[in-house]
Amino acid sequence: MNDIDDKLKIDLPQAKTHSPSGPPGDGTGPANSVLENAGLSLEDQQLFCDAAPVPYEPYSPEFIERFHNWIRANSMWVLAFGTGCGAIELNPLMTSRFDANRFGIQMRPTPRQASVLIVAGYSSVKTLKRIIRSYEQMQGPKFVIGLGICTINGGMYWDSYNTIKRLDRYIPVDLYVTGCMPRPEALLAGFMELKRKIKAGECDGANRYVKDFEWYKANQKRVIKKWDMPDYNW
Amino acid sequence: MGHAGLQLVSKEFMQQLCERLTQRFDCDQILHQKDDLSFLRVDKDKLESTLVYLKTHEGFVHLSFVTVIDYIEDDIFRLSYMLHNYESKTDLAVQTEISRTASTMHSIHHLWAQAWTYQRELKEMYGIDFPGSPRVNDEFVLEGWDGPPPMLRDFDTAAFCEERFVEREGRESQDVKQTMRDNLYPERGEV
Amino acid sequence: MFELNRLSEAELESGKYTKIWHGPQHPGITGNMSLELTLCGDDVVECKTHVGYLHRGFEKMMERRTFIQNFPIVCRIAVPEPTFNEYLYAAAVEELAGIEVPERAEWLRCLNLEMMRLASFLMWLGGASGSFGLRTVYQWTVTHRDYMLDLFEEMTGARIYHMYITPGGVRAPLPEGFTERALSVMNGIEKLLFEIERVVLNNYVFKLRSEGLGVIDPGMVDDYGIVGPNARALGLARDVRKDSPYLVYDQLDFEIITGDKSDAYNRTVQRYQEMHQCISLIRQMLKQVPTSGSFHANLPNVLHWKIPAGQTYVKAECTRGEYGYYLVTDGSEYLRRITIRGPSYTHAIAVMEKLVVGVNIADVAGLMVSLHTYPPEIER
Amino acid sequence: MDWAISIFNYIVTVVVVLIYGLLLYAFIAKTMARVQGRVGIPIYQPFLDIIQTYNKRTAVTHGVMFDLGPVFRLAGGLGTLAFIPVIYGSEVFGNFHFAGDLLLVMYFVFFGQLGMALGAGESGHPYASMGVSRGLAQMTAFEVPFALAVIAVFVQYDSASITEIVAAQQGSIYNWTLFTNPFAVIAAMFAFLGMSMYPPFDLVTAPNEIPIGPPTEYHGPYLSFLQTNRSIFAGAKLILFMNLFFGGATNLPIMMIKLWAIYMIPVLIGVAFARFKVEHAIRFFLGIPTLIGIIAVLYVQYWGT
Fold this sequence. Notes:
heterotetramer, C: Cytochrome-c3 Hydrogenase, chain B
């Protein structure tokens, strides 16, 4: 695939050796930073692009960017992907009791059209793989909400051998809603807070993911041992 | 039929069943846990015939689950096949013990159509091999698992998390007993 | 021998078939699991179920915690009906430790379980009608389930994960005026159910699509271990509440509801009637529940609570069928082994893979919902 | 300068129909939400959605046909609108109407879906191709009663010009085709149920079966094209039905009221029905509606006025 967006034609800036958000020098050895769709067979590699992503520049002048941020904040399309037990509280949120449609929040069944990814609760290693693919197939600007205590520090699964402990080491998280299980009111409050952050232009998760791409990939490959998916799936 | 009457029926059915099993398979290790729940110990090679007999002659047609208990100190696995009889409303667990090293077991996939799922799980979680069971070597719930079978007693999941996943800074997990002693029951002292 | 693979590798490679991954990121999949469907045109010729997206290793984690530490985490095993896990764990521990539960606690437990069953059925009904395109009914039922959750919040203090049924009893008695509010919610749900009978069960399109879909023939039931409403819709009167009564079910007045044919439509009707049965049971219990007396037995010092060695298997009739805990202790402060038996274990894998063959891809979601599978029971 | 004025008028028409279509969509969404006991989206939500999808930072293409699919779709919508006189007797909303415009419109109504089929086919998603096959099968099915109804209108008014057909219906409400030839209207409204993708005929974008059909891979600017076309095309179809069967409109408020009334029919049916399967839909359209269409043709042929 080739990108039709000419903003993507500018060169890739040097990826940092490690992200300030993580312990330095962690996982990013030369062995971990091979990013040529290594997990795939040759004919499959033809199907995916092998161009690294590039960060986007905000619109200029600045009031246009503010206008677009306001639009994004008021039309949030959530990817309908129930990754964990938090999905049980998304049903009351979208239905008549707490009607999230009032705030321009609606569910989209395909990641291509979604702009908000809700990681609902704990995510096992097997699910993390699907979360990463769904996240990379979403088109930027994209925002991630970590739902539940399990996405923050593992919660009560702190000693489970199959669930990740920190979500923000694998995909950039813009907002956490803590609790087990968070009530729909808390979820709505989280959405309002996300709106505020989007309007203020603080949600640049997609850019962070691009800047520290190698660091994220190294962390992901450190956990996902069966890496049979492309490194760049978009 | 009330609760009491039902208990009587299942109780005497159990006793008759035990006699039949004893004089058929000369296995006298039958533990009665409840009126409608008993545990039967058989040898490894007698297990399949026992299950066939129980399913075809005694009406234990429902396989609730298959599980294994890891007795690492005795170096044995104890397999449990929980059967249920809908006529007499009784549960019977057929148990057998196999060696913990190089553990294999006969597949009972030809008796129950869902048995292969349990055998697949046991293969993944305990490393018990079931030759002839379909898809027994496929991954069941784990993906790309590179450690020992995780449900074994000697697999330390906390240490595994330490080296595989990275905790968030500032999280400490404290010993619940110590905390309760200090905060909730200080007057009890060092109980 | 029950054959699983119906197509050989050569046939699969022949280019005649399409292979698509149905889920996990798919609105028509209940929970978080995926089906590897092999299609010939629009019809499924082979299906492989892939589970494990929700595996947290509960059985391992519970071996590392003391008996009282396990009590808060068991309810996390199954989201739509956590209280069955709480009750079964508590019952198993009490049986092995020889604890007598007070009468009042048994009534409160039974009331909690039946309310949980009704809430879970409401959720299921929404999914079943939504998977056939009836979005409106989905909205109605989920909202009324939310009123049930309000009752739970009043009764236990939490909406979803109410750690209410502790080993030895329950955590709290009924609050003041709970009965009237619960009865009013029951009346609202009954009204909704009669509405749903008109909109769903008598809906021409719903009948057209769900009748004759995923028929379970009587020969399958024992070999595949089909339990619960899926089996009762066939006319088999199998219900743990009657077969081996637990709690106070032997003092309540109800009969096992059975049907005559087990396809998607009749399974829906079966569960619809069982929802009415739930409402009547809840009304009976709200009348008879004792308002005085102790609701929690005295436990030993839980800091070092040793339970004598033994093993037991307790089971209850959850929304989907026989739900059981197999608990083994070895006399220490930690349990030796716990096995959780969920009905979805066979419904979602063996039965689903058999029934889905020959079904149009449009009906896969409806068939899956009509079996009422729930993945966390499979992988824990 | 005549052509320049007509081009300008056409642009005005498109803008008006686009805005009204979006408002109508939001209003319908709110109506369905009310049935479900909800408040529903704000009335301006569709505008925000279009701008938001259009201004995605990144976009991915799958090839030339993938890019051209939404263009064809939009061209179908604009072309359908271009030859329908929106308001009878109005200079601005007259559009490029000519003697045989109804035949051209009949072609344009189905032009967009074919282009969409090509584009979605190249996206390579299995659900997209399934949705395309469903959509085309259903389209060929509901074309039959629709074509029969339009033929009946041809025979009745002895003209293939929408303007003349509307002119013949002016005067009294009893001159409408709805009363002069009710069979044709019934057959056409059955076909309209299939055209406007509401249950029980929302096979193409069935969320629980094939999420979400042909537009599965479409995102960003492509999706905003599709959204724009959805309102324009729906408006054009509604205007066509209003002109053919419901006496057209002589000014803007009457047009809005009539379009809303016609649009409410599939919506109110849709909130209370489950989804057909494609074979059910085909059998349905080739059954009673086709029969009614044939009756309509015979009626105007022999007993008609």
